[in-house]
C-alpha cells in the first residue's frame, strides 16, 4: 500500500511518512493508492472480534508492515485501556429501528478520543523510533482540541498547539483544553470562527519551509490516520447490529468537517454493505446544500447549539471529490482552484446523481435539535447531546420502515449543558467534568492574525 495526494504532485509515500506529512506538500490530502476490499466471508469472521482486534485487522491492510504487530497491538491496548467501557464504543438500542453507537466513553467524552488516543500513541512511538521532535499543530471547533491534548500531554519529544475560536466552543470544551497546564501544551484562543482557525493551520502547513523548520505534524482529520481509525467503529457498529435483523442498515452521522462521514464512505468502499450514509448538519448546512443541489459554496457563519458542526469549509470534502471525479488529480485540482478563485464549485448530471447515491443529508435547525432532545428524553429516558440530536433528526427524516438506523452519539450531553438547560432538563455531570470548573485556565487570546499566531508558535517551539 502506498499513499498519494489528491492533487497528484507528491511522490507515493509509505504509511509512516504519510502520518508525518499530514497535509500533502502540494496542498492536497493523502489517500491510499487503492482501497482494499474486504470479502463478505471475512466480514463474517470479524463479527465476533473485540474492538481492539477489529482495529488490528483493518489497519493490517494499510500499514505495509512498517510497524511490527506486537508494537501496534501495544499501542492499541494502551489507547483504549482508559475508556470507561471495555467495548470502547458500546451500542445502545433505543427502539426496534434505532441503535445509537456511543462514541463518548473516552477521556474527553467525545468521539474524537477514539482516533486521537491512538494517534497520540502513534506519534510518541514514531518520535522515539526516529529520535525526532514532533510539533503537533491543529485547529478545533471544540472536541478535537481536548482529545488531541489528552492524547499527547506530557509525552516526551512532542509539543502541541491547538487553536480554537474564542467564545465559540462550549464551556466544558474550553475547560477541557485550557485547564491543562503541561509544558508541552499551548492553547491559542482566536478571535474569529473555526474556519478562520482552520485557514491559518492550512496556510502554515502549505508553507513547506515553516513546516519543515518546526517539524509540524497534523492531528486534524486532514491526517489520513484519523480517517482510518474512525473507520473501525463503522465496521464495529454494523457487525454488531447486523446480526439482529435482516433489514438494510443506514448510518446517520453528525458531520461538520466531513471527516467522520468520509470514514464511513471509506468503510463502504472497503466492502461494508451500509445502505445509506446520512449526513446530519446544522444551520451551517453547506454539506446538505451540496448533496441536494450539487453546489458547494461556503455561506455565512451561524452559531448554533451544536457548535462542533459550526463549520462552512469542510476539509475532508476534497477527499470525497477526488473519488467523485474518478481519482483524476487534474480534475480535482481544477475544482479546488475554482473554489479558491470563485468561492464555489458545482457538480451536475451523473456526478450529482452519484453524490445522491452516496449520501442523504439534512441541515437541522436549532429548534428541531432541542425538540429532538426533549422527545427522546421523554419517550425513552435517553439524553442526547445537540450533535447526536441532529443525527437522530436526520435518521428520522431518511430511515425507511423496512430499515434499521444507527446514529453516532458523538459527545456526552454534559459537554453541551448550555443547550440542555434551554429545555429544562437537569443532568448530573460526570465527576471528571464537574472537577473542571474548579481548575485554573491556561490560554492565550489572540487576534485572527497569522503573523501573531506565528510569533506565538516560534516562542513555544524554542
Please describe the biggest sheet, giving its number of strands, its sense, and whether it closes into a barrel: 6 strands, mixed
CATH second-level architecture of the domain at 91-109 and 225-423:
3-Layer(aba) Sandwich
The low-pLDDT segments are: none
Major beta sheet, strand line-up = 3-4-14-9-10-13
Q: Which CATH class of the domain at 91-109 and 225-423 is shown?
A: Alpha Beta
* Percent of residues in helices: 40-55%
Mean pLDDT: 95
CATH topology of the domain at 91-109 and 225-423: Rossmann fold
Alpha-carbon distance between the termini?
36 Å
Relative strand content: 15-25%
Please give the radius of gyration in angstroms. 21 Å
- How many strand units? 15
Shape: globular
Instruction: Specify the structural class.
Output: alpha/beta
Helix count?
20
Give a structural overview.
It is a single chain. By secondary structure, the chain is α/β, with parallel strands linked by helices. It has a domain at 91-109 and 225-423: Rossmann fold (3-Layer(aba) Sandwich), CATH 3.40.50. The protein is built from 20 helices and 15 strands. It has helices at 15-21, 40-46, 51-59, 69-80, 112-130, 143-152, 171-178, 194-206, 208-213, 224-242, 259-269, 286-293, 317-324, 329-342, 349-358, 366-380, 386-398, 417-420, 431-434, 450-460, and strands at residues 3-5, 30-32, 91-95, 98-102, 134-139, 158-165, 185-190, 216-218, 248-254, 277-281, 295-296, 345-346, 359-363, 403-409, 444-446. The protein has a 6-stranded mixed sheet. Strands 8-5-6-7-15 form a 5-stranded parallel sheet, sandwiched between helices. Helix 5 (112-130) packs across helix 10 (224-242), helix 10 packs across helix 11 and helix 16 crosses helix 17. The longest helix is centred in the N-terminal third of the chain and has 19 residues, at 112-130. The model has no long low-confidence stretch (mean pLDDT 95).
Amino acid at each position: 500500500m502506498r499513499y498519494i495526494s489528491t492533487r497528484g504532485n507528491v511522490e507515493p509515500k509509505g504509511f509512516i511518512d504519510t502520518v508525518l506529512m499530514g497535509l500533502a506538500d502540494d496542498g492536497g490530502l493523502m489517500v491510499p493508492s487503492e482501497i482494499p476490499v474486504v470479502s463478505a466471508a471475512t466480514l463474517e469472521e470479524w463479527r465476533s472480534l473485540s474492538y481492539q482486534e477489529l482495529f488490528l485487522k483493518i489497519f493490517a491492510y494499510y500499514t505495509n508492515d512498517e510497524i511490527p504487530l506486537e508494537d501496534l497491538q501495544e499501542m492499541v491496548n494502551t489507547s483504549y485501556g482508559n475508556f470507561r467501557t471495555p467495548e470502547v464504543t458500546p451500542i445502545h438500542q433505543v427502539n426496534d429501528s434505532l441503535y445509537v453507537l456511543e462514541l463518548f466513553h473516552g477521556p474527553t467524552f467525545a468521539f474524537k478520543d477514539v482516533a486521537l488516543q491512538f494517534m497520540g500513541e502513534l506519534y510518541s512511538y514514531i518520535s522515539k523510533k526516529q529520535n525526532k521532535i514532533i510539533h503537533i499543530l491543529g485547529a478545533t471547533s471544540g472536541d478535537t482540541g481536548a482529545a488531541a491534548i489528552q492524547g499527547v500531554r506530557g509525552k516526551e519529544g512532542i509539543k502541541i498547539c491547538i487553536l480554537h475560536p474564542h467564545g465559540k466552543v462550549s464551556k466544558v470544551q474550553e475547560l477541557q483544553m485550557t485547564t491543562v497546564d503541561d509544558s508541552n501544551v499551548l492553547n491559542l484562543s482566536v478571535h474569529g470562527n473555526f474556519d478562520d482557525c482552520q485557514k491559518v493551520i492550512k496556510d502554515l502547513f502549505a508553507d513547506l519551509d515553516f513546516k519543515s523548520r518546526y517539524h509540524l505534524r497534523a492531528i486534524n482529520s486532514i491526517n489520513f490516520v484519523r480517517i482510518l481509525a474512525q473507520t473501525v467503529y463503522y465496521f464495529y457498529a454494523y457487525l454488531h447490529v447486523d446480526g439482529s435483523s435482516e433489514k438494510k442498515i443506514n448510518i446517520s452521522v453528525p458531520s461538520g468537517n466531513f471527516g467522520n462521514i468520509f470514514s464511513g464512505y471509506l468503510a463502504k468502499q472497503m466492502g461494508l454493505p451500509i445502505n445509506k450514509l446520512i449526513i446530519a448538519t446544522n444551520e451551517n448546512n453547506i454539506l446538505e446544500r451540496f448533496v441536494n443541489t450539487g453546489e458547494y459554496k461556503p455561506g455565512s457563519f451561524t452559531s448554533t447549539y451544536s457548535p462542533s458542526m459550526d463549520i462552512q469549509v469542510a476539509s475532508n470534502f476534497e477527499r470525497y471529490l477526488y473519488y467523485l471525479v474518478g481519482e483524476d488529480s487534474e480534475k480535482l485540482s481544477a475544482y479546488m482552484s475554482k473554489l479558491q478563485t470563485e468561492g464555489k464549485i458545482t457538480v451536475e448530471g451523473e456526478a450529482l446523481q452519484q453524490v445522491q447515491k452516496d449520501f442523504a443529508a439534512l441541515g437541522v435547525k436549532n429548534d428541531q435539535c432541542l425538540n429532538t432532545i426533549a422527545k427522546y428524553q421523554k419517550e425513552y429516558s435517553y439524553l442526547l447531546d445537540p450533535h447526536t440530536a441532529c443525527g437522530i433528526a436526520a435518521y428520522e427524516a431518511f430511515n425507511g420502515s423496512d430499515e434499521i438506523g444507527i446514529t453516532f452519539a458523538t459527545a456526552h450531553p454534559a459537554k453541551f449543558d448550555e443547550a440542555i438547560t434551554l429545555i429544562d432538563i437537569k443532568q448530573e455531570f460526570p465527576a471528571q467534568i464537574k472537577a473542571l470548573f474548579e481548575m485554573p485556565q491556561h490560554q492565550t487570546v489572540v487576534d485572527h492574525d497569522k503573523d501573531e499566531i506565528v510569533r506565538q508558535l516560534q516562542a513555544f517551539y524554542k
